[in-house]
Amino acid sequence: MEPGELEGRKIFEETTTNNVKTGIDFANDTRRLFRELEEKVIHLENIVRQQETTINDLRMSLAVVQAKLFSGGTE
Q: Is the pLDDT of residue 70 over 80?
């Protein structure tokens, strides 16, 4: 081996190892964030469904009130 070749190989190996570890950490963080966002989206979808149900119930109640009001009575 030429002088410095062993040091060069060691530096290359350390750099490669660090790059692989960084890639793995990034992938794991990305997966974790994706799962968190997926849970938030599911939660928000449920809230939207609940709000739609509430709005529809209010519309039906309003329709009953309007029907009574426009039919000429409040009884």
A: yes
